[in-house]
Specification:
By secondary structure, the chain is mainly alpha-helical. It contains 13 helices and five strands. Helix 4 packs parallel to helix 13. The model has no long low-confidence stretch (mean pLDDT 95). Tryptophan (TRP) binds next to strand 1 and helix 7.
């Protein structure tokens, strides 16, 4: 691994099995970038604590997600895969960064407003500080690129502002990172109305059982203006047709034409989509089954990842403490 290579870092909350929205929103870029960059990918379990309150589910969710990451093509030899809380230096950096972050910056972050509305009875302190911990994740590993979905752009901007402010106050310490978005348009959920997400239960699992995937796609909301099979369809308003753009890049236009002319019906395009989704993810599903059969493998990957990540985190934190005047015993 050449030290001159730039670093990439990203994190995801431990939501368990990945869905196709995760894959096209960010995971595909994780895989692609592991060759070009020195890659760090973490499961942000500390971030999850801001809204998640089921201790017994947390670790199973972490390991299921990492198994899907590896199944999707992340290679633990090339990428450092780890759990955020297992490199606790990041929480120390979070504190130091919080001292250069005006509250007004945090209050205007859209996700803070959204989450406060979603959980009005749990608007906790960590929810406000969430983007500061995220900034610490990125800055402690010196990442210059951060593959994320577009919903994370405000957090990335804040990370840059925090880095800039720190550098201005204490001297050049941090790299300002840039977001790396995928080209795939936002993947909508089975309801066709909101973004695909686990919490809304409107998702298609990435390594799901073929029958399950078929059943879920059958249940998807399509073009609601089309009452009868003989009515012309509106592919622009049909989420199943939109998904064909992703899974049928070579022939989605003819699929759409079939809908417009009512040559085909929703059942046909759904069946075809299910075939394509199942085929696309078949190699990953197979890898996932192999990973599940290797007892303790994911835990081993995470232990090695945490050890590697800690080396980088300690080095950065040492420089930061020195910069702000926190004296350390040698
Ligand atoms: N906030 C991100 C999300 O909800 C997760 C995250 C935490 C993250 N730390 C990060 C993403 C660092 C990129 C880089 O998806």
């Amino acid at each position: 691994m050449s030290p001159a290579r730039q670093r990439v870092l990203s994190g995801m909350q431990p939501t368990g099995r990945m869905h196709i929205g995760h894959y096209f929103g960010a995971l595909r870029n994780y895989v692609r970038m592991q060759d070009e960059y020195e890659a760090f990918y973490c499961v942000v379990d500390l971030h999850a604590l801001t809204t998640f309150e089921q201790p017994a589910e947390l670790w199973p969710n972490v390991t299921a997600m990492v198994a899907d990451w590896i199944a999707a093509g992340l290679d633990p030899e090339r990428a450092t895969i780890f759990v955020q809380s297992q490199v606790p230096e990041v929480t120390e950096l979070h504190w130091i960064l919080s001292a250069v972050t005006p509250i007004s910056w945090l209050e205007r972050v859209p996700t803070f407003k959204e989450k406060s509305e979603q959980h009005p009875d749990n608007v906790n302190y960590a929810l406000l500080g969430y983007p500061v911990l995220q900034a610490a994740d990125i800055l402690i590993y010196g990442a210059s690129r951060v593959p994320v979905g577009e919903d994370q752009l405000a957090h990335l901007e804040l990370t840059r502002e925090i880095a800039r402010r720190f550098n201005h106050k204490y001297g050049a310490t941090f790299t300002e990172p840039k977001a790396e978005l995928t080209e795939t348009p936002r993947v909508m959920g089975l309801d066709g109305a909101t973004k695909m997400s686990k919490s809304r239960n409107n998702y298609i699992p990435m390594t799901g059982d073929p029958d399950e995937v078929r059943k879920l796609i059958k249940s998807a909301v399509t073009d609601i203006t089309r009452a009868y099979r003989s009515d012309p369809g509106h592919p622009e308003q049909c989420n199943v047709c939109q998904l064909h753009r992703v899974f049928s890049p070579d022939d989605f236009e003819s699929i759409w034409e079939g809908e417009r002319t009512a040559t085909t019906g929703c059942v046909d395009v759904k069946g075809l989509l299910a075939d394509r989704v199942i085929e696309y993810f078949a190699p990953m599903r197979e890898r996932r089954l192999e990973i599940d059969a290797r007892d303790g493998y994911v835990e081993e990957v995470l232990a090695a990842g945490a050890a590697r990540a800690a080396t980088v985190a300690r080095e950065t934190l040492g420089r930061v403490k020195e910069a702000v005047g926190l004296h350390q015993h040698q």
